[in-house]
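Record passed on here:
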Amino acid sequence: MKCPSHSVDLVPSHAEEAFGWYCSKCSGLFLTQKEIQAFKYNYQTDILEYLSLVTPQKISNRCCPSCSKSMEMKMLAEVMLDVCAHCQGVWFDRNEVSKIIDDSGDREIPTNMADFFGGWLG
């Protein structure tokens, strides 16, 4: 898989019980539907359920690293995420991951999401 921003290879990355695809150039993180399901199992939070309730703001200029289809931009709290409507992968820019952690006290973003992403930020 390639980074949708820099076209460099994404590398598999583990953080505690979590798994994702990491870009060493921009620190972005991609989660496939499979990784999101593992997140749901480990953290009892369904990212896709949250995002399914959100209307896309616009079509992203990025293509999905997994299936190469255009991604949609969806707002979760104050974070604009790139979401693939086809394969349900989610791309997080580094600043988006940081924002999720900062907003973990917000009712829309459970604390366990911050715990999940915190492993990638060291």
